[in-house]
Amino acid sequence: MQKYLDLSRHRWEEIQLSLSSLIGLSLFIYDPSKRRPCTPVANEPLPCDLVHQTEKEIVCQNALAQQVELAIQTEQISFSKCQADLNYFVIPIHLSNEIRYALIGGRIYYHEDEYAQFKLKAAQWGISAEQISGPLETALLGTEAQLREAARHLQVISTALLDNIYRRGQYQTKAVHLATLLNVANQIKNIPNISDIHNTLLNTLGILFDLKSACIFQQVKKQGLYRAVAAFGEKKDQLDHSEALLDLLFQKTSGNESFVFNDVTYDLLKSKFPPDVTSCYLFPLYQGRYAKTVLAIFDTLLTLDEIAMITSFCNQAGAAIENVDLQNQLSEQRNIILALSNLTLMTDSPLYLHHLHNNILEQTLQLLQAEQGSLMVLDEDKNELSVKAMKGINRPVYEMFNTRPGEGIAGLVYKTGVPLLVQDLRQDPRIQQAAKPRYRTSSFLSVPLKLRNRIIGVINLADKITGEVFSEEDLQLLQAVGSYISIAIERSELYEKTEELKRISITDPLTGLLNRRYFQERLTEEIERSRRHRIPVSLMMVDIDNFKAFNDHYGHPGGDEILILLGQALRNYIRAIDVAARYGGEEFTIILPQTNKEDARIIAERVCKEIERNETLQKKHSDLMRLTVSIGLATFPDDAETFEELIRNADRALYQAKLQGKNRVVTFNNEHFSSNT
Question: CATH number of 516-676: 3.40.720.10, 3.60.10.10, 3.30.70.270, 3.40.50.300?
Fold first, then answer.
């Protein structure tokens, strides 16, 4: 009975490196009987390498041995953290009662704090700061969910492959091949990603049948042209992303065969395979919505039994790919429904225009599965179509395409009101221009946005994600949502105009602060809130000292400038919750919610001093006198029982500030002001 596996004879290191590159994680096989790795580590991270050079190496190895023992005893994947604070997993591999291995992988940080913790410990272990001075590598950063998902997939693939290597060494029989293929085929059904299925298929067949080279090709739109999407073996680098004319080989058969074989040098060269390819098998995998997928095996002669097994396995893998493809189709349909729903909601919930335009374009691109697009709306003042949103082109470039009605493609669509579907920009007689280099394909859509009897803009889409041309169905769908887009734009424009009118109605046109009417509404609200919650609210009355002298000296324009600058200063010197307003003339008010008299006085004193120190205010009028303010302060409910009384008492305190010499704060006090009265 075989007691060990000679993994080097079965090209396991190549497979291990391929798997490591596929998932972007470190990998190696561990022999628990010898308490050491039995394959070189693929993609060992720097922190591990540094720890191995210190006295912590033995601690690290002992901890790893314990985790391996735990995984083997429980027959469950074990997750742990090493001395370098790297997260890793241990996958138990049970080949027989005598032969057990563990696949160790991962070695990533879940967050940068773990890397920082390792750096602190490294200094204590004699690792210099220069050795780990660089930032955390992207490859060493991941999530727990990613690590667990990778471990689950690796358990399926590695167990099947190692089990096959073991069984080949024992029996080398057809039954073992079939069992392995059946096992992997069953596992493939649970792989949610087509690319992962491709790689699993190649690695499984490559090891099982000792293939020299293999590749999976997918048909592209150009007739007969296929592009490599996954590769395995000696010619992996040559085959990756290569293109071939497989239809030339398919045409050499009657069409009834389940596979194609060709070893004619001329045919192989004409099909654009690497020049040193000596033979090729083609096994159809899946005929999907847009393309046909084919497995190609190079430079390997297969028996009839092996061909039959590979054909059956490809059929099962094709069914798994079809299932994933159907799931992707359902996901796309859900995205389309979501995009339609979002576009519909935009007509009911107006957004500010700078958000709306981008949202409209984003949802429309998702709906039509397009990569590039622009939304253009008529600027009535300039009488031009202005680009309001775009995707796929830099804004400075796109803004060059603002055009007048009748000019260019979008201008023509706007002027005529007729939608335009172009499937080949270079050959369409309606378009008097060459295909733009910024577009990946020569097909696009341009649809007018109509609102009742007028056109308000144009939406343009280009470059379908699938590489296909736009169809009549695409045009009809875009026209259908065009009315929703037009309504959403109109409602948002009306909404913004309403908001602007509201803003104008509550603000002072000169200073931009709130006006007196709105100030009174806000103060009433704050007093009511104060009554309900028993919290104080304070009021500051602010008046510019000697304003008449400034006005007489500089004239009304100069006086207005002082009022504007003071309004700006007040906004800068108060808190976010405070409310500043122009009360009238040179007098301002500031509401201080949830603020008692002591805190309000501190704020008022700061405002008074900051205005006196404000260089912009002082330099403007240094030839006359320093610009200062006087402030009167009153607090509800301490100083007043009503809205009117609070304003009156704050004004009385302001009057006292003027009498006491100006440029100061006076706080209303019932006893003091009563005696003066």
Answer: 3.30.70.270
